[in-house]
Amino acid sequence: MDPVDAFVHDDGSPDAETQNWLQMLPGTVYVTDSAWWLGELRFVGDSIATLSHRPVEDHRSRPELWLAQIPEPERLAVLKQLQQALTLGSPAIRLSYVIERSDGSRCTIDDSINIQRDASGVVVTLVGLLQPRVAAVAGHDGPSLPSLLDHCGDVLMALDEDLDCHHAAGDTQGALGVASESLLSSSLFALMAPEDGSRIRRLLVEMAASASSSLVELRLRHRDGDYRWFEIHFSPYPLPLTPASEPSAMPGWVAVARNITQRRQQSLQWDAYTATDELTSALNREPFMGLLRHALSNGEVGARFTLIVFDVDRFEDINQAWGREGGDLVLSCIGEMCRAMLRERFSFGRLGEDTFALLMSGKSLQETATIAERLRGRFASTRVEFHGHWLSFSVSLGVAGRRDGESAEIMLARAEAGMRDAKKRGRDRVQQAP
């Protein structure tokens, strides 16, 4: 008895125990009637979803989907081969064909089919085993170089001077959500976050002039619309991408891209933990100043930034009357109210023991002064319960708007001068910087 007869019943369907065993085989087993994927599908292993990039239930409900993934005219040639084997009485046949997935990627399949016939020689069941083709490098045992690249997890690209992609390999599907073919003739700049593009252009010009390599971090857009962080190693290479009569002003590039999104997120989480004041959840002074410097130096020309600086009036008196615990309660209340009250884009920093700053984006000086006044009134009307007593406090605020060419330190000094002027004028008030 043929070994296949042992697990195919008279009706052509394997029982439950046999199906469980078939699911564990290396490869994807399927059982059909004589019409192959155009007829009745009696069994197919779950692993077909890995081959086709479709849910297994799609294949079970519509067997023809597998056949439809074989491009014409190859599909017609495969059907002709199978029909010849059925007509000639062959006990088995091995087919080889390419399938095209919905995401544009392709895979070569080896399909080994055992042909089952009844006593009169009529074909009743086809039992097949699907396996992806793994080519061997000439003279070596093991997978080919393209196969290794496709499973390495990184993305390797050959780019011209404009970063137009002329070759791509590796895990483009996992990294960017697209097949490698989708990257061809498209520019890597089109995938970059806009704020990264100009920086990379400048860097590549510098690298081309010195024929040097560089490792950079940037964001590329995934097919789902979100950006992923990548570490890309650019190496200059004289790629023959332009006619010899029109030599390129800059070399081509070999780029190896690695997805570092998870590493970047972990780093940002740690940076946020170390940069944030535990009591108020505000940025500590140095991180806040770094953010302010970055905003002023990298913002668009003419972009509006304003700064509010304030501290607690007579904070030392609060500490003397209620102890450090009472003072910390007031500071904690300030942090909570700033986060809850302000809906606009802002960054909140703690510059000293009881001194705070808010960096506002896109607000005029007058709008920021209105926000500062709202803060002042809210703080002045707040009562904090402390061991059966009610603590009250007020703040004095200085407001400054960005001036062309002004450094972060000078802008902060002007806002602090406004705050000091508010104290001289009686405290519990807002004063614009000089």
TrEMBL record:
CDD domains: GGDEF, PAS. It holds the Pfam family GGDEF. It is an enzyme of class 2 (transferase). Keywords: Nucleotidyltransferase, Transferase. Transmembrane segments: none annotated. InterPro entries: Biofilm_reg_signaling, GGDEF_dom, Nucleotide_cyclase, PAS, PAS-like_dom_sf, PAS_4, Rev_trsase/Diguanyl_cyclase. GO terms for molecular function: diguanylate cyclase activity. Its EC number is 2.7.7.65. Residues 303-434 form the GGDEF domain. PANTHER family: BIOFILM ARCHITECTURE MAINTENANCE PROTEIN MBAA, DIGUANYLATE CYCLASE DGCP. This is Diguanylate cyclase. It comes from Salinicola lusitanus.
